Amino acid sequence: MRKKIVAGNWKMNKLQNEAKTLVNQVVDLLQNSNLSDDKRVIFSPPSLYLESVSLITNKEAFISSCSQNIYFENSGAYTGELSAAMVKSVGCEYTLVGHSERRALFHETDIILAKKVSCAIVQGVAPIYCCGELLAERKSKKHYDIIQAQIEGGLFHLSEDEFSNIIIAYEPVWAIGTGETASSDQAQEMHAFIRGLVAAKYGNTASDNLTILYGGSCKPANAAELFACPDVDGGLIGGASLVAEDFVKIIDAL
Ligand code: 13P
Question: Tell me, which fold does domain 4-252 have in CATH?
Answer without folding.
Answer: TIM Barrel (3.20.20)
